[in-house]
Amino acid sequence: MHLGGLFQNHILLAALTAWAIAQGIKVPLEFLRTRRWNWSLLLRAGGMPSSHSALVTGIAHGIGLHVGFNEPLFALAATVAIVVVYDATGIRRQAGMHAALINHMIDDLAAGHPLKGEQLLEVLGHTPLEALAGVVLGLVVSQVEWLIFR
Asked: In a 10 Å sphere around its CB, with 0-12 CB exposed, 13-18 middle and 19+ buried, how is residue 113 labelled?
């Protein structure tokens, strides 16, 4: 098997497409919210929709469509997807909330005495709605791929 076969793996391509669409959608959605273009969102974690959720859902759904939802490979893919979505909405979200609190504390301390240092990244995880949007995007893209290439 050669590396060129990766470009013929429609399940992988659908999942990566869902990830890329999710990353790309973040920029105009943020513009609508803030009226500013933030191109760094193309390469950043967090935000609406969850590209992590879109990627793992797309791959799991694609595997289910191609090999069957009753196969062990789908069970593995679905379990990994569940863990990733849980992590995005749970642990990473909490880390972002902690970062916001620490940054607020630093701002309070620095009110009279400016402190030098970097702010912690606050948007590490996703709200449940952001993760759900990523899940739906992954399902739609992998379903379209299956309909085109089956």
From this structure: exposed
Q: Please give the DSSP secondary-structure letter assigned to residue 65.
A: H
C-alpha to C-alpha distance for 82 and 94, rounded to whole angstroms: 17
Residues 6+ apart with CB under 8 A from 130: 47, 48, 49, 50, 53, 88, 89
pTM of the model: 0.68
Write out the chain's pLDDT in tens, 150 residues: 577 777 789 999 999 999 999 999 999 999 999 999 999 888 887 788 889 899 999 999 999 999 999 999 999 999 999 999 888 777 777 777 777 778 877 777 777 765 555 555 566 677 888 888 988 998 898 899 889 887
d(CA 24, CA 17): 10
